[in-house]
Amino acid sequence: MKIIPQLLFVIAIVIFGYFFSKRVIRIRKNIQIGRKEDRSDQPAKRFRNMLLIAFGQKKMFKKPLPAVLHLFIYVGFLVINLEVLEFIIDGLLGTHRIFAPYLGGFYTFCLNFFEFLALAVVISCLVFLFRRNILKIPRFWQREMTSWPRLDANLILIIEILLMAAIFTMNATDQILQTRGAGYTATGRFFLSAQLIPLFEGASTAQLILGERVAWWAHIIGILGFAVYVTYSKHLHIFMAFPNTYYGNLNAPGQMWNMPEITNEVKIMLGAAGAEQNQVEAPARFGAKDVADLSRFNIMNAYACTECGRCTAECPANITGKKLSPRKIMMDVRDRVEEIGSSNSDEDGKSLLGDYITKEEIFACTSCNACVEACPVNIDPLSIILQLRRYTAMEESSSPADWNNMFSNIETNFAPWKFAASDRFNWSKE
Ligand code: SF4
Ligand code: SF4
Fold first, then answer.
1. In this structure, is residue 71 part of a structural domain?
2. Is 314 touching ligand 2 by the criterion CB < 6 Å?
């Protein structure tokens, strides 16, 4: 009968492992819906960016208070999860606190350190809940923050608090059981959870064992469930921030890119040097109408978005009341790619431009790059907006009338104004 908990543990690992890996495969496939782009250049610079921005949280510190609180949650997540290694070994082998006899006093030190981190995580989560729901910080309540994104953010904070509560309950009951000769391994005193001991002292040994086991299972099942849940949530940034910052755009901030096929056509037209007469094949589409026209890195960006709204809070178009929100652009790309991924077809008569993002939104963008600058994980909503706009200009000729006038002026006068190039300096003659 002693084997039953081990069997249940293996079954839990297999079930959660199945759903987690299924989801990882799905996300990988969804990212591959985008077109290929080569970003294998400058690996040292890319690695440095990843270390500084994803691992070191460099851009978070533009806002010190949330940065410090976020750091507690992040370090807590990384460090406390080391304890999960012991949980897994114990669960598989049917042991209890397998590392304690080997590590002795160092084990006590580590567990005390984990508990202080756990307390910091609980406090940080409570402050974040307060900021979101009581202070109602505007960027968490904008138009695109409908019921699911708001619930998702709150759920994760509540789950984190419950996971930490399970650790404290487990450690407190464990310490009492060590004094009752119930066969529990001696661990030394855990300062914080020891403060909870008076709450449990009246309980019988059987009740304490039950409490300790329930907390142990709740913590490990919570962690496994959390791993699956984040793949559906904005909290996927925990993992995606790393590849996302590694493969970030290394061009100068705000730099727009030419289309080589068009540049070549113009060179041929002007008889300029360097034109390839045997033209490179024209792309299937100029610009982007749907997610399949975007780069894979644009889609990866969407999966790395934390929905923090820092981009939207800095966006001059949004601040001046326009419909554009760079955060919504990222959320729309993720929703659309998920829709295509789950139906296994993009031939559903829908498209990113039109069904998710309106022209009013993309035409409101000033291309200022403030959203990219503000993003803590180097996401680039501007690149997506530019590709959608390129589609409206080059495939539909549906840019705003002022822009179309400017395009014709550039074509005929080589300047955005309606004056002929030869007249442009007349003003200086007077
Ligand atoms: S680049 Fe466009 S979307 Fe980004 S902040 Fe500027 S106006 Fe807003
Ligand atoms: S794009 Fe960046 S700044 Fe904007 S909501 Fe997503 S993570 Fe936050």
1. yes
2. no
3-state secondary structure labels for all residues of the chain: CCHHHHHHHHHHHHHHHHHHHHHHHHHHHHHCCCECCCCCCCHHHHHHHHHHHHHCCHHHHHCHHHHHHHHHHHHHHHHHHHHHHHHHHHHHHCCCCCCHHHHCHHHHHHHHHHHHHHHHHHHHHHHHHHHHHCCCCHHHCCCCCCHHHHHHHHHHHHHHHHHHHHHHHHHHHHHHHHHCCCCCCCCCCCHHHHCCHHHHCCCCHHHHHHHHHHHHHHHHHHHHHHHHHHCCCHHHHHHHHHHHHHCCCCCCCCCCCCCHHHHHHHHHHHCCCCCCCCCCCCCCCCCCCCHHHCEHHHHHHHHHCCCCCHHHHHCHHHHCCCCCCHHHHHHHHHHHHHHHHHHCCCCCCCCHHHHHECHHHHHCCCCCCHHHHHCCCCCCHHHHHHHHHHHHHHCCCCCCHHHHHHHHHHHHHCCCCCCCHHHCCHHHHC
Host domain of residue 9: 3-31+63-237
Closest residue to atom 5 of ligand 1, CA basis = 315
Average pLDDT over residues 296-300: 97
* Structural domain contains residue 201: yes
pLDDT in tens, 361-413: 999 999 999 999 999 999 999 999 999 999 999 898 888 888 888 888 888 88
Check if 327 has its Cβ closer than 6 Å to any atom of ligand 2: yes
Number of domains, the chain: 2
Q: Is 66 in the pocket of ligand 1 (CB under 6 A)?
A: no
Verify that 388 and 283 share a domain, yes or no.
Answer: yes
Q: Are residues 198 and 70 in the same domain?
A: yes
What pTM was computed for the model? 0.88
